[in-house]
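Morning F.,

Quick status update on the modeling queue. The single chain you submitted on Monday has been processed. Sequence for confirmation:
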Amino acid sequence: MLRVLQWIARRDWLLRLLSPLIGLFNPFLSANRRDPYPAYARVRETPGIYRAPSGLYVASRYADVAALLRDPRFSADRRHAAPFRLLRWANRRSPDFLNLIDRNLLNLDPPDHTRIRGLVNKAFTPRRVAALRPRIETLVEELLDAASGRGELELVRDLAHPLPVIVIAELLGVPSADRERFRAWSNGVAQIIDPLNAERGLERAKEAATALAGYFRGMLALRRAEPRDDLLSAMIGAEQDGRVLGEGDLLSLCTLLLAAGHETTTNLIGNAVVALLRFPDQAERLRAQLSLMPTAVEEFLRFDSPVQFTDRVAVDDVELAARPIRRGRPIVLLLAAANHDPAQFASPHRLDVGRAENRHLAFGAGPHFCLGAPLARLEAELALAALLRRFPKLAGDPSTVAYRRSVLLRGPVALPLRVL
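Structure tokens below.
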């Protein structure tokens, strides 16, 4: 079934034929992958919560999306929804893959989510993230050094992708000798986030999940015997009310931190540079005033969100914006559409690196607010500041950027730059 859906999702002519069923929210069309915002605006202009001809509910306004992310009547636990039941049945002989789905923090509701998140927060502290600043600065300089001599930089390959993978690997305590294997597994397991665009069905993701689980089991045994000053040891030692993280939760968390952590930051850096190329006046403003960088990163997150949408499932029969939604029905929350809602943001289609009022939803909101947001922000701030500082004549053509096939994750596949 997944292979059939993947086949359909790659054929524009068929997607156009299916438009009467799919409705206004059709992220699979190649034109919408290049620029989804006109389609988001059409959905946002419909009254109330949009209901597609297929029966799918879609929230696109800022007020609705922000409220739904915090609404206890809607669950993040998708494990009992039909697509997940089918996914779990099809992969019933892959225990490590099933554990990743079943114990994934993104798929858990309170009280399990509260307990596990609380324990992770004890290990993944703001102080631990802040302490990474010197190391991230060094990594950024090393990665850019390799490009400066050539006079050109392929942003994704040379900086945006390797930086977060190296950082999360070192944070977890992965030896540098294993870095290349770790990067390959990271790319593979990240496909779980967007299965309709996964390679070979989900075989590559399953292989990576199995390999990572085996690798981390070995590391967990080593850290239990000899703890170190790394995140893995901290998560093992985290305790609350006499409870600690079990091995299944630890394995799932390590894989999630790896996959979600590098995907968000890679796309954030890539989208930010594309935006600066499109708005050269804002690039010059930021280059002249690098102290604006923290504010600018928030604007990059709002302007072209790395994660375009999420979803929730109705816990009971509810009425939402005059729409009755039956128990168990999913609703898509368009984070990127909400971040361009003119009712919340003045001139939302304009990049403003000094935008002061910017309560965007790029990292979500409520209990499932992105765990790695502080790290993603820090990596982006340091990478973008170094780019602008070191290469005052940074140039590229934003009109030729090819975006990844993903409908959920948005970012360039590659971005060639001249660095003079």
